[in-house]
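Narrative of activities, Objective 1.

The group set out to show that a structural description can be obtained from nothing but a protein's sequence at a throughput compatible with the screening campaign. Below is one input-output pair from the validation batch, recorded exactly as produced.
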Amino acid sequence: MLENKKLELKLETEDFDETGVSRERGKRAEEVAEWYFRLNGFFLIHGFIVHPDRQRLKPRTEADLLGIRLKESSEGVWRTSKGDHFRPGVNRTSMTDDALITKASMDGTVKKHLIAMVEVKAGKCSINGPWSDIDERDQQQAGSNMERALSRVGFGNKSEISTAALSMYESLRYQGANFIVQYFSVGKYVSAELEKKYPKLVQITYDQIATFLRDRFNGFPEKIPHERDISLWEGFGDSFRWWFESNGYRKSPSVDACKSAVSRYIEKGKCEN
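Output recorded for this entry:
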């Protein structure tokens, strides 16, 4: 128990470290999160900013990632057994997206479009203050930060956006007629304080992301490009796929090995030892 407290204190201290090393670590953490949401069917905007009404040094607020996943999102591969004739629609093997994502896109038993607002930390999961400060919505400037962000997405009329914004400030989740808005916090470990205060907040750890990546790469090797210079798989995606394939030459890397590879990338910028 004492060792866990020491680890939490060390990681929290790192979160507030404004050195270049800490900033680079944060950028790499965002890369890992971006790939996770990308592979789960989201259309993403990186560094979404809510601009002020007048020129000033800083924006009103920003989200590390803003994403939209349509309710019928699906991806798969077409496979044939030896001797089989290829028949589209019959030979399709569908991918299974992470249960954390598919569960978040459900309102009871009904699938809905999912808007994700994502905060990413290299250390403990956290939320960006201006997205969670309910008093902020009463500012005299036209519209709260949350209302402005949801208006930019354009999923509902003014009345529904106002209702959704209030729900987000109160619980970090809104379930509407056609859309769900969900706040996600990604980090090295879960915040017990946030879990208690916001039961509907979805916290995702890098260990969970690593487990998802292992399942996806094992289950659908056809999706992994082999060209070393492919431009679309750069940064973390490129580093992880090359680490995964080189280590999985004879046997697939273990879950623990994948967790370590993701952690190494965030800390050092590469998945390899």
